[in-house]
User: Fold this.
Amino acid sequence: MTASVVIPTYNGAPFIREALASVFAQTRLPDEVVVVDDCSPDDTVAVVEGVAATAPVPVRVIRQPKNSGGPALPTNVGIDAVRGEWVATLDHDDCFAPTKLADQLRVAEANPGLGLVFGDLAFRGPDAELNRAHEGWFRATVDALPKGALAGGGFRVASAAAREALVRSKCFPYTFSNMLFPKAVWRRVGGLDTGTTVSSDLAFLAAVTARCDVGYVPGLSASWLLHPASFYRTGGEYARVRDQLRVYGGLRRAGLSAAARGELRRVVRELAFERAYAERKAGNYRRAAACLWRGMWAAGPWPGAVLELAKLLPQAVVRKG
Assistant:
């Protein structure tokens, strides 16, 4: 079984050396590393090339001709270029735990058909209280997943149960740095959704769980770094709401329990209303009306949206947005 690591990066010079070091410290080394630079104006490429000269595995750098605005496109470019059967993605400011690849590949190899596997996360950064909050959310979400035993020491989360967890808790593996998946599954779902900006991991998880079971491998997989320059912080709340509405509005409902379908309607409704408010505030009245209509179509009319739509329609008719 061959495995490749893909690292999308933009202005990653302060972090990527440590990220690469965590890959080279694996107890089971990958067969290759592909770094895709999303047209960084800093010296990210020079740093990677310097590290690659003495790396224990082949390291390739792919330079994008222009910045794409998010990690989805460069990640797709990297996955398309790799030769491995299995792919581990790593954000440029995160780090793998030493046994991440060995643990996850062991379970993946013993259980054909899994769409992806993930493990446990550590949270680090300057805000200790925020780290604890993220850790508490992650632990509670993973502990609540309905699991069946897998060969190799892991647990299976069935497709429908994983989608219900997605509705309740959003991206429960938390980050691409915590995932390992077959390249064939990436190809099967059409790659990462480049229509998303900050939530491509959520969109990918939704696409995979619509078709496949996933595996959970107890034990530390990666550490997630939250810092002021992180994409999590700089991506913007508007983009996050827009992405989540795109994902949840198109989430496959077949196989979901009645409770999960009700929760999904609530999530879509709230996201639609939140985005409509942001669009109206920006003067984009047609977009605001379209968001409200989409929310009503997905969740059924509710008094607040009907009243808001009635206010917006006259403006949407005469103004562009």
Q: What stands out?
A: The longest strand covers residues 214-225. Confidence is low (pLDDT under 50) at residues 316-321. Residues 3-234 form a domain with the Spore Coat Polysaccharide Biosynthesis Protein SpsA; Chain A fold (CATH 3.90.550.10). The longest helix spans residues 258-281.
